[in-house]
């Protein structure tokens, strides 16, 4: 019995890779062999990027909080310690948003942190 070469499963598998490689530069978008490698590598970058995005946003939030707190005469670590002492549990994303959009509430939190640090 002859070997099947042009079956639908075979074609579908290749088409799936070629669809994912659409828009890649040069042979990476047209040649199956190179496209397969490029798609695999892109998947590795994407996986790593999803982890890095979490770190990057946390760094951004901390930088924003730090800038807002320095205007009040504290540094970031003192502020966070003051919040912990006054039993205020709020995440950095919310604090960062608050510093940008709702300055009065943020300033009240800074004042509470200062009071807790003074005691």
Write structural notes for this entry.
The protein is an all-alpha fold. The protein has one domain: Ribosomal protein L20, C-terminal domain (c-terminal domain of poly(a) binding protein, Orthogonal Bundle), CATH 1.10.1900.20. Helix content is 74%, strand content 0%. It has five helices and no strands. α4 crosses α5.
Output the keywords.
119 residues, mainly alpha, c-terminal domain of poly(a) binding protein
- Enumerate the spans where pLDDT stays under 50 for 5 or more consecutive residues: none
Q: What structural class should be given to the helix and strand makeup?
A: mainly alpha
Bin the helical content: over 70%
The total of helices stands at 5
Oligomer: single chain
Give the second-level CATH assignment, the architecture: Orthogonal Bundle
Q: What is the element layout, followed by pairings?
A:
Layout: H1 8-20, H2 32-70, H3 76-85, H4 92-101, H5 103-118
């Amino acid at each position: 019995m002859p070997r099947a070469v042009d079956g639908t499963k075979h074609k579908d598998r290749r088409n799936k890779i070629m669809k994912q490689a659409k828009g890649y530069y040069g042979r990476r978008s047209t040649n199956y062999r190179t496209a397969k490698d490029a798609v695999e590598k892109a998947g590795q970058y994407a996986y790593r990027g999803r982890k890095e995005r979490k770190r990057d946003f946390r760094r951004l939030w901390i930088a924003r909080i730090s800038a807002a707190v320095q205007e009040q005469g504290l540094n970031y670590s003192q502020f966070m310690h003051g919040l912990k002492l006054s039993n205020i549990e709020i995440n950095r994303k919310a604090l960062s948003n608050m510093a940008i959009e709702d300055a009065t509430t943020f300033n009240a939190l800074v004042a509470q942190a200062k009071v807790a640090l003074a005691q």
